Amino acid sequence: MSTQPTVILVHGAFADSSSWNGVIADLTDRGFPVIAAANPLRSLSTDAATVKGLVRSVEGPVVLVGHSYGGAVISNAAVDEPNVKALVYIAGFIPEQGESALELSNKFPGSTLGETLQTVALPDGNTDLYVRQELFRNQFAADVPQSQAALMAATQRPVAEAALTEGSGAPAWHAVPVWSLIPTGDKNIPPAAQQFMAERANATVVEIPDASHAVLVSHPKTVADLIATAAH
Q1: Phi, psi of 148 (to 5 degrees)
Q2: Which domains does the chain have, with CATH numbers?
Q3: Locate the AB hydrolase-1 domain: which residues (predicted)?
Q4: What would the pLDDT profile of 30-76 be if each residue is shown by its tens digit?
């Protein structure tokens, strides 16, 4: 049995668990048990409840890692879970109670996500959001090879608009140590917003100059390094 904490990776909007593949390979080589959660991307409260159930299924310490909207999910999922020893945000939202992902991304100028979105009406009256495939690489993954970015665009998971507008509950980061990786070329969540959130959460910060929002794909070793640091 591994003596390392289990790393639970939570993807964000417009992505799926395969976005963590490079990070998983690196962490596995270092001896970490890894689970890449399937984030439903339906509502913040239900997504957090899904991840919380996964956390509770793991014996021993857990490091929770969230990319983008997944950061809001782990902030809520880790509440009152004593086995969560660290929260790691990869280009991630670190919300305070009542704040939504949409509100935080618009708190500082620089996000160009809105103009790239395509809406799809759902039968229940809700709306799904996609990034238009022809705009995906420039918006989301500018430092990822063209062929790989095209696959990411085609396989992206839509996020319900309601998930991005729902306010956070009281977040776990007030009680759990925080690490934050900030890609300075992020066009989804302005780096200034990420800096603001990280500073507020007293996070240990690593910056990657000019990296895109898909920094977990383009710089998996640096991401894995930060997770391993948080785990020890």
Answers
A1: -70, -40
A2: 6-231 (3.40.50.1820)
A3: 7-225
A4: 999 999 999 999 999 999 999 999 999 999 999 999 999 999 999 99
